[in-house]
Amino acid sequence: MKAAPRNLLREFAKMGLEVLVASYGSTAGAAATMFLLYPLAHALNADLSFHQFNRIFSVPYFPVQVAFGFAVGYLGRKQFDTRFSFWVWTVPLSIFIWHFVAFQPSVFEGFWRVRLDHFVGSACRPPACFDQLSYTSPVYTSIAYVLGLSVRKKQIVDL
């Protein structure tokens, strides 16, 4: 039985939306959450600047974004549930690889180490850290999203 073109188009649109939610939406949601939590952290420690707070909870490992991606995957399993749900990480990873390879370090720096430090490590300095937020964080959050999906699916199957 062939899939109707309309159903295939709907499935493709759902997949695109799922990729956006899993990667960039989770990153943006986590950033908004951090922005809302900063006044509480600032009330507990008056010397804490937003830059320090953001640095602790984001670059280079993005723990808040990863947790947010996992939660969105776990809770959003029922909303999307396309046949491509477990492959949403491939789009952000492809974008990451493209920018990783296209990155031009200075002439005096090592070729691969500088790229790794810039995109994955802690050597990133503002405003270049935008690369980590734009390319690295979506990869992390989309992988966490898939892990959340798989945990939810396992729980549903076990019931």
What's the structural blueprint in terms of helices and strands?
Elements: H1 5-44, H2 50-57, H3 63-75, H4 90-102, H5 111-119, H6 130-158
Helix pairs in contact: 1-2, 1-3, 1-6, 3-6, 4-6
What is the β-strand count? Answer: 0
Any low-confidence stretches, pLDDT <50, length ≥5? none
The overall number of domains is 1
- Rg, Cα atoms, Å: 18 Å
- Straight-line distance between termini: 31 Å
- Output the structural class: mainly alpha
> How much is the average pLDDT?
82
**Percentage of residues in helical conformation:** over 70%
Order of helices and strands: HHHHHH
Q: What portion of residues belong to β-strands?
A: under 5%
Largest sheet: none
Can you tell me the overall shape? flat
- How large is the count of helical segments? 6
Can you give a write-up of this model?
This protein is mainly α. It has one domain. It contains 6 helices and no strands. The chain has helices at residues 5-44, 50-57, 63-75, 90-102, 111-119, 130-158. The radius of gyration is 18 Å and the shape is flat. The model has no long low-confidence stretch (mean pLDDT 82).
